[in-house]
């Protein structure tokens, strides 16, 4: 677990001009990278810095130029599985580099997604110090074919040499780069700000749910996130115990229609299993706030945002026991093996039989989130990093 000590050196006394790119953009309504961008960008603006977030035109309205004090640059891309991210990142880097030539200088940039290592040299040639956030080990994701995995394998190697700073968000990922490539990295975790939902009743009523009356799962619907195995594990639970409450699987996935249809078939004719699609904002907060238990079944990646958020909202956590997930949840979770879905069913039954254990898990999760995953503390670490990069 990373501590919250400063990254070294004194903060710059003046405001910085910062560029954040590689995600879909803000306002956040997709995944972890987008939430990271919005949470740290708005806090950096509040601290006096000038922040620009580069956004995709199919995600952020073209006419939107500012959001909560953050400048937005909305650029087009090609909306295909393999070209969406690289085309937009290339255009973002060229736009930022051209701005440097016109006198609109950036003191530092944050690039997310390890595949974008290919484009970091554009920023470096334009004399923009750049930190690259690599997230997890993307070449392990099942959604990528041979070509995609080759690109991520190349990007992983480039990530060790082209950015000013290599950024990781979990010790497991930091150790992977150190052991495989001898590359050191700065480690900054994800955060959570567990604000109560303004209108919790609306989403619960729409889905026919009651507070503490359902199990929640949140993730993109991709094979390595195991939504299919979560459904199987839920069905393995005793319908009068761990399976007595409905389970709500929140999420979706662009370019994965066949997999999503498979989940819909698996859930067919079982009214306990709900697939409402992606839910963001107040509705998402309401679902986290009022769940009886939260299931995290991911296999690949570093710090998973939904797990941190489930922890921050004080949920009883049932977590696939990968090293990354254990690093985040520590002793504040019950662990199962996603490759053996029956272990999830047994864990649900055991919690249903032990209300005192559920209460203890909720308390432990909330306390761990407060101690290690505050967005304010995370932003302070990013600010220190950017100031150090700008000085260098």
Structure notes:
- The chain is α/β, with parallel strands linked by helices and 392 residues long.
- Helix content is 42%, strand content 15%.
- The protein has helices spanning 32-46, 84-101, 120-125, 146-158, 171-181, 200-207, 227-236, 257-267, 281-290, 305-312, 323-329, 342-352, 355-372, 375-391; strands spanning 17-21, 50-56, 66-67, 70-75, 108-112, 130-133, 165-168, 186-187, 215-218, 247-250, 273-274, 293-296, 316-320, 333-336.
- Strand 9 (215-218), helix 7 (227-236) and strand 10 form a beta-alpha-beta unit.
- Helix 1 packs across helix 14 and helix 10 (305-312) packs across helix 13.
- The longest helix has 18 residues, at 84-101.
- The radius of gyration is 21 Å and the shape is globular.
Low-pLDDT runs = 1-12
- What's the rounded overall pLDDT mean? 91
Number of helices: 14
**Cα shape:** globular
| Classification by helices and strands | alpha/beta
What's the total number of strands? 14
Strand order of the largest sheet: 3-4-2-1-5-6-7-8
- Estimated radius of gyration: 21 Å
* Termini gap: 27 Å
Strand content: 5-15%
Estimate the helix proportion, in percent. 40-55%
Output the helix-strand order: EHEEEHEHEHEHEHEHEHEHEHEHEHHH
Query: Biggest β-sheet: count, sense, barrel?
Result: 8 strands, mixed
């Amino acid at each position: 677990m990373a501590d919250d000590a400063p990254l070294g050196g004194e903060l710059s006394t003046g405001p910085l001009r910062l560029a954040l790119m590689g995600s879909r953009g803000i306002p956040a309504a997709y995944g972890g990278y987008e939430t990271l961008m919005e949470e740290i960008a708005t806090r950096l603006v509040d601290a006096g810095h000038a922040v620009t977030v580069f956004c995709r035109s199919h995600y952020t309205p073209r006419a939107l130029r500012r959001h909560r004090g953050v400048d937005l640059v909305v650029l087009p891309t090609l909306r295909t599985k393999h070209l969406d991210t690289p085309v937009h990142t290339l255009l973002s880097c060229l736009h930022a580099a051209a701005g440097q030539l016109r006198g609109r200088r950036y003191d530092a940039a944050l690039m997310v997604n390890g595949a974008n290592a290919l484009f970091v040299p554009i920023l470096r040639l334009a004399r923009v110090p750049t930190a690259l956030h690599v997230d997890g080990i993307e070449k392990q994701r099942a959604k990528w074919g041979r070509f995609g995995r080759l690109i991520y394998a190349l990007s992983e190697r480039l990530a060790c040499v082209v950015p000013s700073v290599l950024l990781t968000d979990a010790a497991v990922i930091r150790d992977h780069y150190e052991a495989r490539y001898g590359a050191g990295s700065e480690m900054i975790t994800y955060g959570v700000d567990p604000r109560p939902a303004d209108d919790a009743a609306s989403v619960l009523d729409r889905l026919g749910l009651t507070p503490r009356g359902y199990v929640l799962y949140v993730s993109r619907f991709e094979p390595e996130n195991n939504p299919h195995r979560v459904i199987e594990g839920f069905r393995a639970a005793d319908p009068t115990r761990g399976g007595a409450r409905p389970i709500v699987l929140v999420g979706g996935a662009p370019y994965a229609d066949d997999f999503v249809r498979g989940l819909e078939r698996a859930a067919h004719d079982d009214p306990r299993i709900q697939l409402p699609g992606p839910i963001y904002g107040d509705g998402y907060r309401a679902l986290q706030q009022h769940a009886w238990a939260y299931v995290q079944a991911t296999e690949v990646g570093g710090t998973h945002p939904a797990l941190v958020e489930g922890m921050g909202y004080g949920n009883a956590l049932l977590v696939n026991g990968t090293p990354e997930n254990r690093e985040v949840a520590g002793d504040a979770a019950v662990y199962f093996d996603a490759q053996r879905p029956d272990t999830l069913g047994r864990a649900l039954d055991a919690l249903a039989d032990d209300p005192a254990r559920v209460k203890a898990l909720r308390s432990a999760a909330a306390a761990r989130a407060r101690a290690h995953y505050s967005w304010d503390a995370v932003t302070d670490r990013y600010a220190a990093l950017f100031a150090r990069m700008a000085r260098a």
